[in-house]
Design a protein that fits this description.
about 240 residues; alpha+beta; 8 helices; about 10% strand; globular; binds flavin mononucleotide; Nitroreductase-like; flavoprotein
């Protein structure tokens, strides 16, 4: 690769960020296929390619949003329903420690601050949480599942595929938001998808064209400098 090509690759990686407000502009099916075709070059342990992707648009998307939003709203009213909506794998730790909890808080309050949501404003927080299940208005949802027979490592494989999807989308002028939020509602999601019993929901991506005028999309998250997370060993 020459310097210009390197810059294109780096730009696609570094300009990707989580977009939480989309235009209703549709995405051509050919473009989605193209992105998935490129993304499937992701590595996977012994080339098992354990990913399966459901591309949801149109009427199916509307049905998904309606059912999951209803469940989320019921959960907000009756927190005891949480029992029904356990994730199949714990994405986050049960007990948080520094520095991760600090970064998590900084991220949450940064986002809420931008949206004018103050501490204790539970209704507003719930409304923002609900935006997840409206796909932030993105016209396309990609639901990634894995066969339950596969090991935990297959989630690493799928994660690599997902990152490829987000970068390939970015290169084509599209934006994304990876979403673990849907995992709580996996029984509903898998039912709407018509997925077989042996599949587990791993992650969701909202895909579409970013709304350039929405303040939420100005939220750019920081990263630690390389020295803070890298150990160079020589001798
Ligand atoms: C696996 C995964 C799940 C995520 N789930 C959600 C989610 O449910 N809702 C959301 O708004 N953002 C979600 N995010 C986005 C993160 O908050 C975001 O990646 C992080 O703050 C870094 O910001 P950036 O993506 O803009 O660089 C998720 C990210 C990852 C990698």
């Amino acid at each position: 690769m020459n310097m210009e090509q390197i810059r294109y690759v780096d730009d696609a990686i570094t300009t990707r960020h989580s977009v939480r407000a989309f235009l209703d502009t549709p995405v051509a099916t050919e473009t989605i296929k193209d992105i998935l075709n490129v993304a499937a070059r992701a590595p996977s342990g012994t080339n098992t390619q354990p990913w399966k992707v459901y591309v949801v648009t149109g009427q199916k998307r509307a049905e998904m949003i309606e059912r999951v939003c209803a469940a989320q709203q019921a959960l907000f009213q009756q927190p005891e329903l949480a029992e029904q909506y356990q994730e199949t794998f714990a994405y986050y730790p049960e007990t948080w420690i520094s520095p991760f909890i600090d970064r998590r808080r900084e991220n949450g309050w940064g986002l809420y601050g931008l949206l004018g949501i103050q501490k204790g404003e539970k209704e507003k927080m719930a409304a923002q949480q609900l935006r997840n299940y409206q796909l932030f208005d993105a016209p396309v949802a990609l639901y990634f599942t894995v066969n339950k027979a596969m090991g935990i490592g297959s989630k690493m494989d799928i994660s690599m595929m997902i990152q490829n999807v987000m970068i390939a989308a970015k290169a084509r002028g599209l934006d994304t938001c990876p979403q673990a939020a849907w995992n709580h509602f996996h029984p509903i999601v898998l039912d709407v998808l018509g997925a077989p019993e042996n599949e587990e929901l791993v992650c969701t991506i909202a895909l579409g064209y970013a709304d350039p005028d929405h303040i939420v999309n100005t939220f750019i998250t920081p990263r630690e400098p390389v020295e803070n997370f890298t150990v160079f060993l020589d001798q």
